[in-house]
């Protein structure tokens, strides 16, 4: 028995080119997205990898030590010039140095060059001349580095104990007024003074590349390393520690150093509150427009208005939130319930609640449109069958229609989260702060403080990139924060997509998008 020849699908003339054009557009879009993610990953995560330190000998015998950043054509058009991060801002007057390649006579990578991270002046680069302990003993030569490493490990343990004491003992006891709490608080403060006394004292002496001496107090020291003497495994461990500090610590040095933990917490909390606020209102509005309201001219005008609201610039919503939520409702709440605190406002200033409400209003049209489209795709036979079996209209909506439209609702929530998480303009008017190291959640009643200002990853990117005093130092953190914002949005969206898939599987593929 002969097999029938396979039939090849033939597209009408002209449609094949259109299909290839559509496929090419999709491929270019994916390539652009992958290129963006690759750029953010390389520039952002590469910042935490310990870079080698070069000792550069220049014409005239001058030397400098620093981390190579990049090379660009010279402004005069003759040759290239190289940017180095040299640190030592308190000595050099700046952290960066441009060097023409034609002026470089030799480049080496001595293993004894030390990179020190300080709280106040940023990095310091040089050779470790001496280490002076808290008790005054002075260690010089090669023995100074092991002594410094041991002292840094001890300081890390003391800092952890101090932070735990403040967070777990002092802060909870500060809100209590009983006698037992007063005794425990007094003992905790005594212990805190002991820890601070144990951390005080000592310094290290660095010899810079040009021969100057630089004394660094140990209490200002955040870390020290010898990049040129580190193995790949040591660098990987240091990279992991740097990423963890970026995720778990607060910012410092005007957002050009430190971590972004308060911004991560603020972004996720604001998006969750926004989703809780916008979902019921959006779903109820869509149910009314599609299931309850008379389908006449007025209903069509309302739909057109809702769709037009989705295109209003976000800064307009910020102005509305400032005038209505902050000054209007917030000012009235202060006059009613917080009169004793006036003229210092409690709710009459920007905060987490007003930012969440403003973004809920911003994303409300998206949820309404997506939910209404899902309701419109449900066949009328489903409604009629439920009513014919004796169900009331409310039971038909709650037990038949809404479960089948749940994937469309979650689609609206996904789109709302994707838009709200990256918005910056309205937040600048209704509650975001440049620096708010304390997250709006603590152990004091009511535990979640909606009136407090908060940090946001999008605004952190904007502030570090355009308002920082050192743009060169801020740019790697801008890339890392942008990558983190993309990942946060991705995690939130994947959670909603998983729920949508679960509901689509449970209630059939009829409403699957």
UniProtKB/TrEMBL annotation:
Give yes or no: UniProt keyword Transmembrane: yes
A Gene Ontology CC term for this entry? plasma membrane
Q: Entry's InterPro entries?
A: MetI-like, MetI-like_sf, Phosphate_PstA
What broad class describes the main subcellular location of this protein? membrane
Biological process terms in GO annotation:
phosphate ion transmembrane transport
Keywords of this entry: Cell membrane, Membrane, Transmembrane, Transmembrane helix, Transport
Topology of this chain in the membrane? Multi-pass membrane protein
A molecular function (GO) held by this record is: phosphate transmembrane transporter activity
Can you tell me where the transmembrane regions are? 260-289, 309-330, 350-370, 400-421, 477-499
**Where is it located?**
Cell inner membrane; Cell membrane
Domain ABC transmembrane type-1: start-end pairs: 264-496
Q: Which SUPFAM superfamilies match?
A: MetI-like
**Per its UniProt record, what PANTHER family does this chain match?**
PHOSPHATE TRANSPORT SYSTEM PERMEASE PROTEIN PSTA (PTHR43470:SF6), PHOSPHATE TRANSPORT SYSTEM PERMEASE PROTEIN PSTA-RELATED (PTHR43470)
The similarity comment for this entry is: Belongs to the binding-protein-dependent transport system permease family. CysTW subfamily.
- The name under which this protein is listed is Phosphate transport system permease protein PstA
- Originating species: Halomonas urmiana
Q: Which gene encodes it?
A: pstA
């Amino acid at each position: 028995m002969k097999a029938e020849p396979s039939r090849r699908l033939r597209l009408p003339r002209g449609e094949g080119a259109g299909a290839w054009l559509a496929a090419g557009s999709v491929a270019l879009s994916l390539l652009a997205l992958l290129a963006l993610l690759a750029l953010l990953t390389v520039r952002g995560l590469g910042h935490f990898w310990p870079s080698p330190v070069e000792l550069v000998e220049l014409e005239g015998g001058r030397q400098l030590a620093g981390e190579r950043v990049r090379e660009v054509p010279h402004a005069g058009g003759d040759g290239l010039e190289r940017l180095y991060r040299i640190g030592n801002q308190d000595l050099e007057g700046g952290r960066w140095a441009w060097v023409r390649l034609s002026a470089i006579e030799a480049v080496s990578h001595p293993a004894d060059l030390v990179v020190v991270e300080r709280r106040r002046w940023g990095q310091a680069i040089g050779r470790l001349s001496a280490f002076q302990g808290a008790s005054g003993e002075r260690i010089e030569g090669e023995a100074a580095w092991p002594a410094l490493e041991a002292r840094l490990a001890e300081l890390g343990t003391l800092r952890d104990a101090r932070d735990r004491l403040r967070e777990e003992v002092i802060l909870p006891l500060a809100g209590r007024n009983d006698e037992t709490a007063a005794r425990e608080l007094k003992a905790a403060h005594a212990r805190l003074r002991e820890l601070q006394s144990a951390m005080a004292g000592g310094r290290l002496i660095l010899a810079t590349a040009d021969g100057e001496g630089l004394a660094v107090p140990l209490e200002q020291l955040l870390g020290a390393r010898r990049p040129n003497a580190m193995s790949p495994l040591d660098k990987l461990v240091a990279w992991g520690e740097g990423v963890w500090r970026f995720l778990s610590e607060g910012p410092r040095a005007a957002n050009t150093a430190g971590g972004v933990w308060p911004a991560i917490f603020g972004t996720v909390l604001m998006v969750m509150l926004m989703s809780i606020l916008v979902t019921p209102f959006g779903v109820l509005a869509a149910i009314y427009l599609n299931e309850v309201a008379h389908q006449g001219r007025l209903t069509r005008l309302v739909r057109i208005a809702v769709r037009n609201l989705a295109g209003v610039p976000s800064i307009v919503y910020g102005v509305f939130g400032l005038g209505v939520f902050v000054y209007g409702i917030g000012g009235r709440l202060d006059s009613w319930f917080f009169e004793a605190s006036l003229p210092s406002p409690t709710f009459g200033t920007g905060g987490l609640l007003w930012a969440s409400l403003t973004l809920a209003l911003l994303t409300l049209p998206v949820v309404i449109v997506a939910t209404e489209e899902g309701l419109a795709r449900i066949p009328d036979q489903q409604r009629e069958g439920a009513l014919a079996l004796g169900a009331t209209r409310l039971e038909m909506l709650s037990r038949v229609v809404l479960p089948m439209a749940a994937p469309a609702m979650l689609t609206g929530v996904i789109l709302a989260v994707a838009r709200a998480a990256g918005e910056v303009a309205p937040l600048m008017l209704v509650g975001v702060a440049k620096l708010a190291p304390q997250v709006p959640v603590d152990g004091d009643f009511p535990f979640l403080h909606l009136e407090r200002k908060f940090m946001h990853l999008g605004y952190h990117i904007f502030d570090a990139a355009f308002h920082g005093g050192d743009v060169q130092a801020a740019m790697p953190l801008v890339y890392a924060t942008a990558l983190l914002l993309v990942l946060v949005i991705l995690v939130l969206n994947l959670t909603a997509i998983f729920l949508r898939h679960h509901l689509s599987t449970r209630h059939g593929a009829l409403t699957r998008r």
